[in-house]
Amino acid sequence: MSTFYRKTKELIKNHDSLFLALYHIRAYAFYFLNRISNYQVEKRTFYRKLGYSLNLKNPQSFNEKIVWKKIYDRNPLLPITADKVQVRSYIKEVLGEEQAQEILIPLLYVTDNMLSENSETFTLQGFPEYTLLHFTSSFKILTRQAF
To answer: CA 6: distance to chain centroid?
Structure first.
């Protein structure tokens, strides 16, 4: 490994803002290159994982329709309804405060970054003995209260 590469890697590791900037630049570059190349990366990934070619002109299978929706559906409500917290404010806006309170389950705690919170700011007092904490769609923790 060259010294230039090693020094650059260390610089990026030590500066979070530089890492985030490069991460977003890489993501946008990937997006635009994928668009310019007629979604070849998406098509290759689809074929590699499912074993048949992706047909975006006439999607038949559920998987093809999901990929078509990811690429072409630009409904502005999709990001709002995908977020658990933002969808609550949208429901309150559409239905009104009183009717939304009847429908929505009360929130116990909302945070941006659970891992950086101090232990004294977040306690599990008042929760059942076993509690499932949802952070994202793929990150869940099952906790057991210590008595």
So the answer is: 31
